Amino acid sequence: MFDDAFISFRITENIRHFAKPNLFLYQDVYTSTSLLYPFLNLIPAWIFGDGWIDKMSIWNAALLAISIFICLFRAGKTTGNFQPGHQLITLLLLLPWFFEFRNLIYANSGLETAWYMVLLSISILPGKTNWLAPWLIFIRPEGWLAGWAVLFDSLLKRNFRESRRTLIQLVLSLGFWAFAGWALYGTPIPQSLMAKANHLIDRPNEIAKGFSYLLFSGHSIPLALFAFYCYQFPKSWKSDSLTLIWAGLYLFFYSILAAWWPWYLPPLFVAFWFIGAKASLTLCQKYLPKNSSKIRLTMPIALFTIIGIWQIKAELPKIQEASKAFEIRKIASQSLCQFLIKSIPDSKKILLEPLGMNAWFGPSLQIIDYPGLANPKMVAYLSTLPWKVPHRLTDPRTDSALLEKFKPDVLVLWPEEVNAFKKISGFENRYNRIKILPYYPAEKRMDSVSIFQKNQVLN
What we know:
This protein is mostly helical and 459 residues long. 61% of the residues lie in helices and 6% in strands. It is built from 20 helices and five strands.
């Protein structure tokens, strides 16, 4: 699971125990990018009890399994092909990409991605539940794109009745989403979106890389299969227009934002799982008709079984390594927070960058997080600087400005951040390094965290 996931987990815990949808009880900030996700987490919390976050990987894997079976079912319904042999071949074709590293790690990251994929599979595939699409804004802000996909698809098909209904829902969903944000936090815009707006990005270069990454990573087989399917049945792709329009809008949106981080990739799997499944079932109907011999039917089943086992075997070490890395970082974050809680008075301000796990293990700490995922004052100040800021505290100009503005009592820094702060004139006279804790030795930039104090804060 990712560090950011623990932001939502802490909000869920505060809802459970204090009926407050906030990351820190001492401030009302719209910290979770997803308005609904911290409330959805109340379901596994109710089912599993106090140790619920340890079961979140299983919970999210179940949600991902639901999404892939919805894709398979919708593909069967649109093709009219529910023959067991053809369904088995198609399932075996899809399973390696279900177990693909980027799906199981980034979709099962503890973020809202797994829920998002289930709701996408319900709302952007052919069926009678497309009315849900505009309301996906509650699970992620860009979920609103699903509603626009339904609108554009209905206009393309000249179904103006559905177009009017969808347009009304788009307005209503945006209004209710904004009202809910105002009612809970006093703002309609999640704090994380405003924080990321201050980041330094080489936009033209990132847009080009982002589009190719999002389109081709993990989708090569479904794309090739769909291309062959379109070649065999030239006009059949028109029935998939809603799914293709949504995929195009999603690709365009994240490419323009130059936000092509791997955790934005899995939602596209829903579209590609569906078109891959539909292509497979349609081709099976043509090349493996009902009167096909058992040997002819068994050959692709055996082939895809072998490919699936090989693929899963190849992906398993990467998944195990990522799980091990998470456990190491989790234990290190817990040790860091235990040290800070024991040594730092509650009133002292702590400046750091990795917020999630530190907020989970240290909910009473007075954290000033960079770049301001939970701190509106940080975002407001960074927006006044005449330059864009990096993702970490690695720019001496920015770091010096933050020290003057926020006057933190304690700094928790990565190695590269330590080097940046040491370039600030007078820094080593104002702050003393009093602790170095191991963090994640496998990655040099995260192998340790250094804790600096100001004015003898520690007891």
